[in-house]
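Q: My labmate handed me this sequence with no annotations at all. I'd like to see what the chain might look like in three dimensions before we decide whether it's worth expressing. Could you predict it?
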Amino acid sequence: MADIVPDVAPVEDWATDYDILDPAYITDPVPIWTELRERCPIARTERHDGSWLPVNYDDVRDFAANPGLFSNAKTILITPPNAPPPNAPPITSDPPDHREARRLILPAFTPQVVETHEPYIRDVCQQLLRGFVEEGKADAASDYAQQIPPRMIAHLLGVNEERSADFIHWVRCALELGLSDPPLRQWAREQIFGFFTNEVAARRAQPGNDFISEMMTAHIDGKPISDHQLIGTCNLLLVAGIDTTWSSIGSALWHLATHPQDRHRLVENPDMIPVAIEELLRAYSPVTMARLVTRDEDFKGCPMKAGDTIIMNFPAANRDPKVFPEPDQVIIDRAENRHVAFGVGIHRCAGSNLARMEMKVAIEEWLKMIPEFRLDETEEVTWAGGQVRGPRQLKVIF
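A: Here is what I predict for the chain of 398 residues:
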């Protein structure tokens, strides 16, 4: 089980008392979403200061389409007491500030720019695989999936790639372990912001050829970008670009380890991998975001109050049978796939092209070198809970 301790009282009614940190939810939330979809498509809980949980595709899209009522000022469900406002633009920005903050980062994530990073990621994957392929076993999560995005983000930002272990630890403390340990989350925040404060100061003194240096030349409303905004943007790239992608890669490898027929199809037809990735993203969407209700209003029959939290349940939306026939079946050549794994609306993930590329290369290189593998049944597969779900231990043998 994940290293998160849920509330002491077990959940007895998911419609009125859900807990996304409950072991049952962490291990397999799909049956819970199915129950809620039939009983009450927008659930309510008073745990963790109270929140609302939609499970239908259309409901999630409607929440996302109303940033005036549902603010991105709160993207994290559980925050430490008296914590400073989040600083990770554009994901923590609302209109009109959001547009300029997003405009600044989009050029770094166009398909053309992302393509230039593919040789680097391919080399990273090959090096990682060579490190354990002769052993006949590995932890596909910690030895492989979790090692790829930290190096990519470090490469993009022009920071020391040897700090990847620190990045992994900080992000896990911020998004996973810190959910039940507010001081730990605050410590992780301090580490991340302290690191990027030093990096920004170094680039001010000596610019380079990297994302941070390029952002320093940007302007917002005719004024040079501030260190505060630049540090916050770097924080976003680290936190949003690491755990989300490694969870997606890990979930894909878990699926291929447990579904040999799908693995064989991709080994024999590697051109199918991009389409398969979209289905794996749909079925194992890692990210659940939060929103803050800005005013009292009944929305979809729910009496919401200013200050309430909405859980943007993208993973549940991607299992809605009204949108996806046979939603709980992974159909790796699914023709129509309007999934919202990367979110929807104005805050849709700006780095989706990069995440797709990392997944594609990671799976291609693994299947080239290790076409046959399966779970080590003597070891437990553990999953992270909270707002980013993915395997944390995934022992395989080959």
